[in-house]
Each structure stands twice: as structure tokens, then as C-alpha cells.
Design brief:
The complex is a heterodimer. Helices cover 49% and strands 12% of the residues of chain A. Chain A is mostly helical. The longest helix of chain A is centred in the N-terminal third of the chain and has 29 residues, at 100-128. The two termini of chain A are 13 Å apart. The model of chain B has no long low-confidence stretch (mean pLDDT 86). In chain B, a hairpin with a 4-residue loop joins strand 4 (75-83) and strand 5 (88-96). Helix content of chain B is 25%, strand content 28%. Chain B has a domain at 2-100: Beta Polymerase, domain 2, CATH 3.30.460.80. Classes of the chains: A mainly alpha, B alpha/beta.
Chain lengths: 399, 158
């Protein structure tokens, strides 16, 4: 967070304008200090930190299981992706293998998360650029997904549903029917958004050629996710470093070469289609039997049945929930493809029941660095499109 | 897992072949490779990994400092590198003493290091020499101390 600015054009020409942190199109509490020549942005400088809550420090004071609740609050539009990445990092530390069925449920739910997150992005991005209808439609369909999450985990947003070794609970009976209904209803809606936007002249005018980023610049800036793929680099963690059985699913990595806001729109819409494909396959191939979490006495809680009928089960249950568990000393980095890009958790253990250090490689934080590259030299109205297209979540940027 | 490990080993071998003294320690844990290098060698090693046509570690994912207080050397900085072509990750670790936590900035090699290094300065007080603008990024400018250090309390008064 810095408050002083040096102007490049000198005091006579440039005007310094402070955009945010309460501006509606900054998607949270982003502040951008703009140096303007008329309507042209000479220099844009992002100022962040307004939502800094010290999550990484907090997690050092909690046991590994308690830390999961903190991860929900990072990227609040994709809490399940965060849960997944953190749990997988801890599982890597422990060397635990998660049952196939739990892996498939994880994949299914994180892909639904991707769709719901992209819907919010599409809605708010279109709203920023003056298309109100898509926003209302998008939130309508997002609600269906939130209801599935609520049905499965009991929470709409702060799910904490993935736990170390598997899932928190066996999903309730009938949950797959709800997913099926969504799979049926969603494709026509997706077509509806595309009818509204893809060939819309205002939409094309506001996004084509705006916020251009070359592949080399994107890699140099560490940009990942749809931003990188829209610049023509086919890097998707799900394909490059498959995790949670992603190698058993058939899907494409969507890329575009134009590298502008319109290309990013195309990539994200295509990704929603791919996510539907993955969800479909996950339902069809989901193992019917098998546990929803791994069995590892002393680390992963025993089943309720076991806890109530065996003395070992009761002791383990008590110890896990009072003391936690202690992974061996060491450090791991686990990355997944969150809706915004490469989400990484670096977890260091010192052999105690609390993580020694947790670092979140937040894709929004890194992607936001590209904003000056996208917006400088263009109009203020294009800056709005550029902020929208980076799809930042300030909870994750500021942590 | 196995083919990946084979590749990583060859990256390590390339570094060894290029400079036998560069790697102070090699850590293998859960299929991840960490090269511990000295602070003086960091830039050279990174430049080699970046530019060698067979390695091409062009993507810097993350910079993660770890505070080992009260042990010495107190700080560890982990650079999480990624080679998109070889599809492999490699971690470079540098250890820094508590009384002089300074290191060369890598912003000229990877522009993305800019904010990561600012964050490391803000939260851990690690100085990056040659950084274009080493100011606080998450905490307010007038903040006292570096919150993620282990001697900085989680609650109560400082």
C-alpha cells in the first residue's frame, strides 16, 4: 500500500486520478492511481492491501484441519478450489492417497465451481461494459450451482467440504440428480449468453483489441489461467501436471491467440463447456462403492460408526480433534488450476500439529501485476474492461 | 511420477555439469526437488536455468520466504520455477542470515518477481538489491515491523 506517486508527464499536462478503492468496477477494494492525459491513461498503478487480513499468519496458529476454513476466505468465488489445493498440499506432506471416489467428487465439484466463478466474472464484466442482462442471467444460473453446494456441504459459499484425505461427509442421496438437472438446463443458457454477447457490436467494440498481452509478456509477468491461454500459451495445470485423476478425463485446453479482452471472453466461455464435459464424465464414471475419505488412523478421522463402537476409533477421534496430526518435517508446493489460474499452496511443516508456514500463490495477485501492461496508453473506459478481464478477487490478492 | 523425476534429475545434472560448486545441497522430498544455492550464486544459477535452451525455466511461479527464527541462518527464500516446455518444476532455495537479510533482486530476469519481492520485504523484511521500487505492498506504508516473522506475535501487543 503506497500513497505517493511520481508523475511521468510533469504537473502541467497530467492529471492524477484516484480510482477506487470503493469504485464499483474495481471488483472489491482495488485502488488504481491513474495518471491521465485527457482520457488517455499514461500510467496506471495498482494499490492493494485494503483487504489484507493476515490469513497466512492466522494459518500458522491453527492446526492443519482448522486451516481449511481459512482457505475458503481467500478466493470467495471459488472456495472449493482453495479447499482442494490446500488439502492436496497437506496430503502430499503426509503422503496420503485419496480414494478414487473422493477424487471424482472433488473433480466434479471443482468444475462446477469453475462454471459458477466464470458466471460471476461474465456477469460483472458485462455489467461493467454496459450489458446488464447477462449479469442477471448469469447470477440466475449461478444460484443453481450454489444450491448444489448447499445441498452437498451445507454451505453456499464457505463450503470447507474437502478435508485432508477426502471429503467432510458422504454426499447426500440424490445429489447427482441435481447435478444432472443442472447439466441439462445449463447449455441452452450458455448459448443465451453467447447470443447476447459474441456477435454484439458494442461488446466487440469494447473488448476486441483492448488490453492486449503477448505470450512472452504474459510468461514474463507470471500470468496464468485464462489470461495466459488467451495469449496462445496452452498451459493448464490440469493437463500439464494432472492431479486428482484429471488424467482420466477427456477435455481440451482452450486457447486463443489474439490476447485481447475478447479472446479471454472466448476462452472462459469455452472453458465452461469443457467443465460441463468433465462433470458429465465424472458422473458417468464415478465409482459407486468406495469410501469418501482415506483411512489412516491417527490422521484422518474414523467413521462415525467406528468412533461410536470401538475404543481405538474413539481415541483417534478425540486426539485428532483436540491435538490435530503432525506431518513429517519438510516442505511441499502443490498447484492446481483454479478458475483464475495457477493456485499454489506452499506448506512447510516442522513436525508439529500446526503448519510452520503456509504461502498462497494467489493467481489474482500475480495476474493483477499485468494491469499497467494491459491498460497504459489506452482510454479510461478501456481500463474498466482490463480490470474486468483480469478477473481478480481481492480476497485472494490481499490475503 | 517416474518420468518427471527423471527429467528433474537431468536438470540437476545440467546445473552440476555447468558449475559443480553451485549446488550446496540437494533436497528430494515427496517428488519435489530443491536446490540450495548460495546467495552470491543465486542470480547466476537462475540465469543459467532461464536461458539454457534445454532447460528453459522461463516461468517464475512464486517466491516464498520462510522464517526459521531463532535458528541461523534465519531466513529461507524459495523460488518456485516452472519450465513450460519440459513440464517440470524446480525449487531454488537460498538461506539468509538474520542480521543481514539482503539478496539480489530477480526483477530483471522475471518481471513477475516485482510484487513477490515487495511482499517478501513487507511481510519478512528481506531487502532485495536492485529492486525498482521496494515499498510495502499489503501493509500500510507507516506500519512498524514485518508481520510474518516468527518473533512478531499473532495476537496482543508487540
Amino acid at each position: 500500500m503506497a500513497t505517493t506517486i511520481d508523475t511521468v508527464a510533469g504537473p502541467s499536462k497530467a492529471m492524477v486520478l484516484n480510482m477506487g478503492p470503493q469504485h464499483p468496477s474495481t471488483h472489491g477494494v482495488l485502488r488504481v492511481v491513474l495518471e491521465l492525459d485527457g482520457e488517455t491513461v499514461l500510467k496506471a498503478r495498482s494499490v492493494i492491501g485494503y483487504l489484507h487480513t493476515g490469513i497466512e499468519k492466522t494459518m500458522e496458529a491453527k492446526t492443519y484441519s482448522q486451516g481449511i476454513t481459512c482457505t475458503d476466505r481467500l478466493d470467495y468465488l471459488a472456495p472449493l478450489s482453495n479447499n482442494l489445493c490446500y488439502c492436496m498440499a497437506v496430503e502430499k506432506l503426509l503422503g496420503v492417497e485419496v480414494p478414487k471416489r473422493a477424487q471424482y467428487i472433488r473433480v466434479l465439484l471443482t468444475e462446477l465451481t469453475r462454471i459458477s466463478s466464470h458466471l460471476v466474472w461474465l456477469g460483472t464484466h458485462a455489467l461493467d461494459l454496459g450489458a446488464m442482462t447477462v449479469f442477471l442471467y448469469g447470477f440466475r444460473e449461478r444460484e443453481d450451482i450454489q444450491k448444489i453446494f448447499e445441498f452437498v456441504s451445507g454451505q453456499r459459499m464457505m463450503t470447507s467440504y474437502f478435508r485432508v484425505g477426502g471429503l467432510a461427509l458422504e454426499p447426500p442421496t440424490g445429489w447427482l440428480d441435481k447435478v444432472e438437472r443442472f447439466l441439462e438446463s445449463f447449455p441452452p443458457h450458455l448459448k443465451e449468453y453467447e447470443d447476447l454477447l459474441t456477435r454484439n457490436r458494442i461488446w466487440m467494440g469494447r473488448t476486441q483489441g483492448v488490453g492486449h498481452l503477448t505470450a512472452d509478456d504474459a510468461i514474463a509477468l507470471g500470468v496464468s489461467g485464462p489470461l495466459l491461454r488467451a495469449s496462445g500459451v496452452a498451459y493448464d495445470v490440469r493437463k500439464t501436471f494432472p492431479y486428482s485423476s484429471y488424467d482420466e478425463f477427456d477435455f481440451d485446453v482452450c486457447t486463443q491467440t489474439a490476447g485481447d479482452c475478447y479472446a479471454r471472453y472466448q476462452v472462459r466461455v469455452a472453458e465452461m463447456r469443457e467443465s460441463l464435459k468433465i462433470v458429465r464424465q465424472a458422473i458417468d464414471r464415478m465409482p459407486q462403492d468406495g469410501n469418501f475419505r482415506a483411512s489412516l488412523p491417527g490422521i484422518i478421522p474414523p467413521s462415525r460408526e467406528e468412533m461410536k463402537t470401538s475404543i481405538e476409533g474413539l481415541i483417534y477421534h478425540f486426539k485428532i480433534f483436540t491435538e490435530g496430526f503432525a506431518p513429517p518435517p519438510g516442505q511441499v508446493y502443490q498447484a492446481i488450476e483454479s478458475p483464475r489460474g495457477e493456485l499454489g499452496f506452499f506448506v512447510a511443516s516442522d513436525g508439529s500439529a500446526k503448519p510452520y508456514r503456509v504461502k498462497v500463490r494467489a493467481p489474482s495477485f500475480v495476474n493483477l501485476q499485468s494491469l499497467p501492461r494491459l491498460a497504459e496508453g489506452r482510454l479510461v473506459s478501456d481500463l474498466i474492461a482490463c480490470i474486468g478481464t483480469t478477473d481478480i478477487i481481492l480476497g485472494e490478492v490481499d490475503r | 511420477m517416474d518420468p518427471d523425476r527423471g527429467q528433474v534429475t537431468s536438470a540437476v545434472e545440467s546445473v552440476r555439469k555447468w558449475d559443480a560448486q553451485a549446488i550446496l545441497q540437494l533436497i528430494e522430498f515427496r517428488g519435489e526437488t530443491t536446490l540450495v544455492v548460495s546467495r552470491e550464486n543465486l542470480r547466476r544459477v537462475c540465469e543459467f536455468l532461464f536461458s539454457d535452451p534445454k532447460l528453459h525455466f522461463t516461468f517464475l511461479s512464486d517466491i516464498t520466504p520462510v522464517d526459521r527464527f531463532p535458528l541461523e541462518p534465519r531466513f529461507e527464500i524459495n523460488y518456485q520455477l516452472l519450465s513450460l516446455e519440459r513440464k517440470e518444476r524446480l525449487r531454488i532455495q537460498v538461506k539468509l542470515p538474520g542480521n543481514d537479510p539482503t539478496i539480489h533482486s530477480l526483477t530483471t530476469l522475471w518481471p513477475t518477481a516485482n510484487w513477490h519481492e515487495r511482499e517478501a520485504w513487507d511481510l519478512f523484511g528481506i531487502r532485495f538489491e536492485g529492486h525498482p521500487e521496494l515499498t510495502r505492498i499489503l501493509m500500510p506504508d507507516d506500519w512498524d515491523g514485518h508481520p510474518l516473522r516468527k518473533d512478531y506475535p499473532t495476537e496482543g501487543y508487540r
